Known about the structure:
The chain is of the alpha+beta class and 64 residues long. The protein is built from two helices and three strands.
Amino acid sequence: MPADLFTVHRVHCSHNGYFVDLFVRVSNKVAYDMYTKFGYTVYRRVLGYYSGPNSEDAFGTLHE
């Protein structure tokens, strides 16, 4: 697990969090595959989440 993702999980567990919510570009297959490998599931698609010259939708992913 990448260090930043590990830190998110550690904080989540130490503070008795209910879930971790991350967003990933729909086109970012590498990130999407990594998150699903670590147990994240897509719960929504956010239209226009990323703006600017590379505007794009995002998947909202959730880990409980």
